[in-house]
Amino acid sequence: MSDILPAWTAITDWLAVHAPASHATLRPGAAVAEVRSTEDELGLSLPADLATLLMVCDGTVDASAHDRDPDEYDPGLFLAQHHLLPLEEIAHVRGRGGNTDPFWGAWIPFAVTDYSLPPWGGLAIDVEGRLATFNQDGGEPPSTPLTSPGYGSLSEFLDTVAEALTQGTGPLMAEATPGFHRGALVWGPLPGEGAPWTSAHQ
Q: What is the C-alpha separation between 33 and 110, in angstroms, rounded?
């Protein structure tokens, strides 16, 4: 049984209370048949933790399509400045139907820093459940494109996000501080004086 659900529940419960605009970007979970269909497209099985997560929440809504003020930050970037990708977008970013970029190998992208346009950068997980970062910027991808983000697994990553949100402690706090901008969770502080951002932990 996956151990990621307590951390995910802590994250989403916190969003529901403190950052409703971010909570509203969560999509319903995928059906088992949808997970299996995506695995068939990709030609490999999703790691158990990722499959479990996607069956609880099939990624986030692409908020770039919403009518928002130009200075409003994307509410879907609550996962330490990443969007959780839906199954459809995982297949799109990685490639499907025999068109998978050799860049990926056994790695599966599951979160990106920008939904709107490639080249993408974000987080990937391999078939053994290890986590790494990726960046497709700069033309042809290198032969070894992935580096460790400091988390051994998806479970560890979600634990650190939950700790930063609910307690204001942990390794993420050294990189950015969770805060609020127009009802959304935004990791800041935002640049410039007078930016409309308030820390979640004073």
A: 18
Q: What is the pLDDT of residues 89-135, one digit of tens each?
A: 998 888 766 666 777 778 888 999 887 766 678 898 988 888 888 88
User: How many other C-beta atoms are found inside a 10 Å radius of the C-beta of residue 152?
Assistant: 12
- Considering its fold, how many domains does the chain have in total? 1
* pTM assigned to the model: 0.88
Q: Give the rounded distance of the alpha carbon of 57 from its chain centre.
A: 11
- Look at 149 and 174; give whichever has higher pLDDT: 174
Residue 9 belongs to some domain of the structure: yes
Domain that holds residue 52: 5-64+71-188
CA distance 25 to 79: 12
* Cβ-based burial of 134 (10 A; exposed 0-12, middle 13-18, buried ≥19): buried
